[in-house]
Design goal:
164 residues
Length: 164
């Protein structure tokens, strides 16, 4: 029996120690508020990360819109230059056809011995028109080249026009 009372005392002492330790543990309210605080911190961290990502997306979108605007302006400028070159090329073809026709008539008249004084004048006028058209075509081509060089030289079209 003495063993039994010794065991009983030991069990009672152990239960007292467990009760004291249990009193020192945080209660369910404290544990819940600790978990809640951790969840709030995690939520706030996610909100901050989301705001940063949203700002990055906005900055990327602005950059993309800016690049698209630049590309659209370059495309419009290239289309205008292409239109000018096409017009000048048509003019050059027409002038060259007129020159060839006038020279052919002049040669035929010279060979037939019936040289027409007006034919020589028309041939010269056609040649002058051909030279003018060729010059305008070259100017259009040079303007296209200048438009490509301006950004590299850091010169805007208005500054280039003031100097040229």
């Amino acid at each position: 029996m003495s063993e039994l009372s010794g065991l009983e005392r030991r069990i009672t002492a152990a239960l007292d120690r467990i009760a004291q330790a249990a009193q020192n543990l945080p209660g369910p309210e404290v544990a819940a508020s600790g978990a809640e605080a951790a969840l709030r911190e995690a939520l706030e961290a996610e909100r901050t990360a989301n705001a940063q990502l949203t700002e990055r997306v906005r900055a990327i979108k602005e950059r993309q819109e800016s690049l698209i605007g630049q590309v659209e302006r370059k495309l419009a400028r290239a289309n205008e230059q292409l239109d000018v070159q096409g017009f000048e090329l048509q003019r050059l073809k027409k002038a060259n056809a007129q020159l060839a026709d006038a020279n052919r008539k002049l040669i035929e008249a010279q060979q037939a011995g019936t040289a027409d004084p007006g034919a020589a004048m028309r041939a010269l006028q056609a040649e002058i028109e051909s030279l003018r058209a060729a010059r305008k075509a070259e100017i259009a081509e040079l303007e296209e080249i200048m438009a490509e060089l301006r950004p590299l030289a850091g010169v805007g079209p208005a500054e280039d026009a003031a100097h040229g």
